[in-house]
Design a protein that fits this description.
Order of helices and strands: HHEEEEEEEHHEEEE
Structural class: alpha+beta
Radius of gyration: 63 Å
Strand order of the largest sheet: 4-5-6-7
Number of strands: 11
Strand content: 15-25%
Distance between the termini: 192 Å
Helix content: 25-40%
Number of helices: 4
Length: 243
């Protein structure tokens, strides 16, 4: 019995001794690690790369233009300037067209047209490029007349200008018939007296009246009566005998 107790005591002493040795070894290792950690010199890190901040933009007055547009004391005080353009003047009214009375072509001088400013105005002989009233004659033929007025070219049929010269006659006659009593039966008019050449023109001939009592080819005062056919009937001129 004593031997077993003694053996047990020896085993216990051995265990305590072993545990004490292991504990001492661990403690010394911990002290060594602590000393190594405290005595170790840290490796310096490289300094960080310095990136300068972007510069602040310069203060420009144009950056604050929205402030003046949005903080208005009055809505009418804004940057939008409305320029009131006056309306264009109305177009100039075109005057009445001249009345056309006929045309003749004497050869090298070109066609000669007879116009009057109004139906009752005296007749005027007009060549191409000449003016009658406010209109300039550009071309004339048996079907169409071209006039210029205020930089515009006006084309009219011959019949339109001919009707313009006598368009009011039927209406005036009708008004006379409705407003006045019918005139008494008058005696037939006497035969027209024979007359000679009229006024001289710039073209070398004199004016003529068809029903002047002189037959075609009659010679008076050195002029011979010549008849012409026009779209509006017969017309005549007194031309020099030697021509």
């Amino acid at each position: 019995m004593n031997r077993k107790l003694l053996l047990l005591d020896v085993v216990l002493v051995a265990v305590v001794f072993y545990v004490g040795v292991q504990f001492r070894n661990e403690w010394r290792a911990a002290k060594a690690r602590e000393a190594a950690t405290l005595n170790r010199q840290p490796k310096p890190l490289p300094p960080p790369i310095f990136t300068p901040l972007p510069p602040e933009p310069a203060v420009m007055p144009s950056a604050y233009i929205n402030v003046t547009d949005k903080l208005l004391f009055d809505r009418s005080r804004n940057a939008t300037v409305v320029i009131e353009v006056p309306p264009p003047p109305p177009p100039k009214p075109m005057p009445a067209l001249p009345a056309y009375h006929g045309m003749m072509n004497l050869g090298s001088s070109g066609p000669t047209a007879f116009f009057s400013v109004t139906a009752d105005a005296p007749h005027q002989a007009i060549h191409i490029g000449e003016s009658i009233g406010q209109f300039k004659l550009l071309s004339v033929n048996s079907e169409e007349i071209a006039l210029e007025w205020d930089g515009k070219v006006i084309h009219r049929a011959v019949g339109d200008l001919a009707a313009h010269s006598s368009g009011n006659a039927p209406q005036v006659a009708q008004n006379v018939r409705t407003e006045a009593a019918p005139p008494p039966q008058a005696a037939p008019p006497p035969a027209p007296a024979s007359t000679g050449p009229g006024e001289a023109t710039a073209f070398g001939f004199k004016t003529c009246t068809v029903n002047d009592g002189n037959a075609e080819g009659s010679v008076k005062e050195g002029y011979r009566k010549v008849m012409h056919s026009t779209p509006f009937g017969q017309s005549c001129t007194w031309e020099p005998v030697g021509k």
